[in-house]
Amino acid sequence: MSGPVASAAATVAPAPLPQLGSPVSVGVGDVKLHALKVVGDMRGDLSVGEMPTEIPFDVKRYFLVFNVPSTKTRGEHAHYQCHQFLICVKGCCSVVVDDGVHRAEVVLDTPGKGLHLPPLTWGIQYKYSKDAVLLVFASHTYDAKDYIRDYSEFTNVVKSTV
User: Fold this and answer.
1) pTM
2) What is the pLDDT along the chain (162 residues), one digit of tens a residue?
């Protein structure tokens, strides 16, 4: 795969903005964009999500991605079993999601938006703002065998599951 958006997958139109409690499909497999509750007052803002209402799986692991130079990409893999839920808690970044047939780019630019990537979704994160902090919740603990890091292998696996 060459560059963050190169592939044979067809690009789909941007997803509409979700309403609280009603995630919307981004047109790629079962990937969904969720609205997360944001409450603000004179003390500051609070974004909240509950499992399994907003985050549709049991969380076993989390990680933060930050200090990423704007020209660098992260991700560039899929998982056999692991679900992921991405929230850019500060700044913004773009996420490319790909199911081997369709591809879409989603901008995460507020803690009030979360993106669910189910298993067998190729994910790429890039266009990080200087201050971006990406929080990722995962359904499984780390297991190197769960990763598909080669795009050709990913498309072969997807074709074999259809």
Assistant:
1) 0.91
2) 444 455 456 666 666 678 888 899 999 999 999 999 999 999 999 999 888 888 999 999 999 999 999 899 999 999 999 999 999 999 999 999 999 999 999 999 999 999 999 999 999 999 999 999 999 999 999 999 999 999 999 999 999 987
Question: Cα separation of 78 and 117, whole Å?
Answer: 9
Distance CA 87, CA 85 (A): 7
- Where in the sequence numbering do the catalytic residues fall? 77
Report in angstroms the alpha-carbon separations of 27 from 17, 70, 117, 126, 161.
13, 26, 12, 20, 19
d(CA 146, CA 103): 21
115 to 7, 52, 88, 148, 149: CA distances (angstroms): 21, 14, 9, 20, 20
Identity (one letter) of the amino acid at 32? K
